Structure formats: C-alpha cells, structure tokens
Amino acid sequence: MIRVMVADDQAVVRAGIAAVLAAEADIEVVGQSADGEAAVAQALALRPDVAVLDIRMPGVDGLTATARITAEVPATRVVVLTTFGLDEYVFAALRAGAAGFLLKDAEPERVVDAVRVVAAGDALLDPGVTRRLIDRFAAGPGPDDAGRLATLTPRETDVLRQVARGLSNMEAAAALGISPATVKDHVAVILSKLGVRDRVQATIAAYETGLIRPGL
C-alpha cells in the first residue's frame, strides 16, 4: 500500500486529488493539509511514501516544503502538482528534491501514475516540463558546472549519458553491452558521487555539465 499525503490551499482541489488517489486499491491517503508548514509537520509525523504538494500556498510555499521534506524525511518522495508551469518553478522544484512535476490539467490517471512511479523510486515529469528542461540547457555548461563529472569513471560517464537520454536500466545495459544489474550499481555510485537524489537530478547535472546537449 502506498501511503500518500496531499497539500493544497484550495479545499476543493485538495479533496479532488485525494479522492482520485484514494479510489485506487493500492493507495491510501493518510493526510491532507492547506499550507506548506502543515505539510512538513504531517510528513514528519506520518512518514508517507509520497507527498503531493501544490507550489503556491500561504506561509511556507510548496518549494520550501519540498526542500524541507526531502531533507528531513528522505524516505518521502515529493510530487509537485501545480497550475504554474513557469520555468523558475520547475527548476526550483527539481533542485529542491522533487521526484515528480505535473501540471493540474494532467489527466487523473497521470497523477495516479506519478504517485506509483515515484513511490517505486523513479521520477516522472510532465512532457512539457521535460521539453523546457532540455531547452534550458541548450546553450551548454556554465562556468560553475566545470569539473562536476571529474570523479566519474569513463564507464560511469557512459551510464550517466544513457540515463540522461531517458533510457531505463535494461535499455542502457543493451546499449552498453553490460548487465542491467551492473547499470543499477553504476547509477547508485553516480548519484552518490554527484550528490544528487535521483535520476531526474542526475539528468539535470548531465545537461548542466554539457555531457548531454539537446538533439545529440
């Protein structure tokens, strides 16, 4: 059973999201809150598997709440669900540790899928968000990004390149001629060396450092 909490300052929206999720046999909604401070408190008290957070909330906003939850309750994965697809929100949410980012006009089944995906340890982004993420780094690495990949071995760099292209462990293994288990081990080491939480943040690092360029 996937235990989920929902935070949104609009009661109707919050209840609607909770109802969609609670209708699934494998999901239990264990808490609801109307602001970021309450969301952080609930996460600390309830230790849910997934927290679905709005960005714009009174007091402590969703971005701050995301950063605090991922830092203080690292086992809880965060999905940011918002009306606002502005780039600054997208990048801030991902860097705060969000494992998923969806817009509120997403189909209900997409929200359910996002909860399942992040609960399983993976990450999910709205397709439009992914496109903007790629476009954001089209100009290549900035001066502060040099050297971030220096600790990776050549094989780890190859694996990161495949991850950043969106390949699964199985697909990356086939592309590199190694086993999926070996890819999985490499991914764990890559995340540790780069100091990132998951494959989404590893992908951001690959673009920021210029390892991957859009269209290549």
UniProtKB/TrEMBL annotation:
InterPro entries, per database record: CheY-like_superfamily, NreC/VraR/RcsB-like_REC, Sig_transdc_resp-reg_C-effctor, Sig_transdc_resp-reg_receiver, Tscrpt_reg_LuxR_C, WalR-like
4-aspartylphosphate modification, residue list: 54
UniProt key word Translocase: no
Keywords: DNA-binding, Phosphoprotein, Transcription, Transcription regulation
Record-annotated HTH luxR-type domain positions: 145-210
Superkingdom classification of source: Bacteria
Residues covered by the Response regulatory domain: 3-119
PROSITE patterns per UniProt: HTH_LUXR_2 (PS50043), RESPONSE_REGULATORY (PS50110)
Any one Gene Ontology molecular-function term assigned to this protein's record: DNA binding
Listed SUPFAM superfamilies: C-terminal effector domain of the bipartite response regulators, CheY-like
The keyword DNA-binding is annotated on this UniProt entry: yes
Xref: Pfam families: GerE (PF00196), Response_reg (PF00072)
Protein name (record): DNA-binding response regulator
